[in-house]
Amino acid sequence: MPDKKITVIAYSGHRHDESPRGFILYDEEITIKETLNRWLEEDFSGKSRKRYFTIKGSDGYIYKIYYDEKKKEWFLVL
User: I need a surface site. Which of 14, 29, 30, 53 has the fewest CB within 10 A?
Assistant: First the structure.
């Protein structure tokens, strides 16, 4: 199953993927209460880079989201 494209509300600093603050999932806004982990994955053969975040949402659930720098889009890992 492919990951789900989502809309992320992010810190409006010089890098929009730097610090997500919330996201929209099925028409519901979920605020990020805590960032539990963050890391970078690079695929040198495909020249892609993804910035991953494991976060705790305002609904109490733990989510893994990432920003795909090549596509310039955010995704929820399903």
Answer: 14
